[in-house]
Amino acid sequence: MISTLLVAHPWFSPVVLAVLVLGGPVAGRWLYWRPRTAWTVFAASLLPIVLLTLVPTSREVLERCAVSWYLPTFGRVELMANVILFVPPVLLAAVASRRPVVALVGGVVGSAAIEAVQAMAPGLGRSCDTNDWLTNSIGAVIGAALAWAAIWAARRWPRRIGTTGRR
What we know:
Elements: H1 2-8, H2 12-32, H3 35-53, E1 65-66, H4 77-97, H5 100-120, E2 128-129, H6 130-156
Parallel strand pairs: 1-2
Helix pairs in contact: 2-4, 2-6, 3-4, 4-5, 4-6, 5-6
Domain VanZ-like: 54-148
InterPro entries: VanZ-like
Pfam family, one: VanZ
């Protein structure tokens, strides 16, 4: 269903990625001063990952794991969607924890764990794919880079006392 939507509207993934790249550091800077909110939004950002990777499907798995290494391009809509899937949670976890490298490692390891579950649980109707891990990891790198920019901006231009009444 989602793949059909993305194929019908190939502009959607690049637009979402552009919004994340442009808006991510701004939102991250705002969330830097609100770590509880950042953690809450982070938890919500995990829901699409769980729904798109671990919810069982009626599909019969013909091969457990595919080994392929293709870099995402705007024409490969599923690969671009896999990149986008991991940008928000890594960005949010990095801003909330103020540790972009730890969030990046968490995103890469989390993606590998998802692929391992898919490989070991064929009843899910999902097959693991090294390309999914690669593209999720690229998204995690982008998320960590955006978080680094947000953290840098928050420290460079701290919020002013009196603008929100709280510090």
